Amino acid sequence: MKYIDEFRDHEHVAVLAQAIKNTCTQPWTLMELCGGQTHAIMKYGIDQLLPEQINLVHGPGCPVCVTPLAAIDKAIAIAELDNMIFCTFGDMLRVPGSAKDLMTVKAEGGDVRAVYSPLDAVILAEQNLDKQVVFFAVGFETTIPTTAMAAYQAKARGLSNFKLLVSHVRVPPAMQAILASPENRVQGFLAAGNVCVVMGYHEYLPIAEKYQVPIVVTGFEPVDILQGILHCVQQLEENRTVVENQYGRAVTQAGNVTAQAMIERVFEVTTFAWRGLGEIENSGFQLNLDYAEFDAAQHYQVAHINTQEPKACKSGEVLQGILKPFDCLEFGKRCTPENPLGTTMVSSEGACAAYYAYRRQQSLSEE
Questions:
Q1: CB of 97 within 8 A of CB of 72?
Q2: Which end of the chain is less enclosed by CB atoms within 10 A, N or C?
Q3: Is the whole-model pTM more than 0.85?
Q4: CATH number corresponding to 67-170+255-299
Q5: Tens digits of per-residue pLDDT, 88-138?
Q6: pLDDT digits (tens, 9 = 90+) for 90-103
């Protein structure tokens, strides 16, 4: 299949792995920013093809993983209301809140539904005018255009029974927060190709210059990821720090300007509290004044909920690249996909779930 098989070619993979080994002369720590990349690395054993000097750590690139506990508790409080149809993506149903998850709300009789798109929730609102319909909107810049379109369509159709609980975030400010941290270990980034399809990569240029780190926009197949690592290592070895676009078959510097215009029509940038990273300025989205009527947190008076993260879960350190999943004492013991302590184990894109599924057990101290 074109654009798939050629990026899984064994011979090409072997050539790239050898090129990385030939290029690398000293230790480097690289962070892949997308959970999809993390799972590809674990699934295809890409980490095991690399020289020992290269340490891959896993960033805050899973939308479910960075959704704060307070947002989950707000979602649960709304989902338990009478006359409510509460919609979200399937991954969010089993994310633990302070006392329960959305799947438990459903089991207790709540009308909680997994949908494929926020536009599905708009249709439900149109078909159930006697009920309230809320969509729990999570994700990076990849998914926010469809949320913006949902708000736009709901407004155009006059659906006063439709609301959005918004937990959308922006990648570049999170990268800067990681790089500015005194605990930072990251020397280069593999940027998320899917995010850059929408937003382009022009926002990464000043980050690379300010923090002197290479940033390589990277796809999700084995050849993509190995090419991204090779480009990153080449820059580090040559003392260069620029933005490169490995994913040129899908990404341009400007991105999808039509999608960006829809985002700007509905949302405005705001400070957001990330799970594990804390509050980051200009890192989130909120509905602007023209669309404030669709704000579920304000309408249902749950904006005040502010829950503390559990101390037993080390997902914050994992999301910052400080720890690897198996460095958490609860990994694979108290915390499993069936009984997750935190989002990085429950999400299909979470680093802990990837390590558990593909049995990566070596700790940082043994590397």
A1: yes
A2: N
A3: yes
A4: 3.40.50.11740
A5: 999 899 888 989 999 999 999 999 999 999 999 999 999 999 999 999 999
A6: 989 988 898 999 99
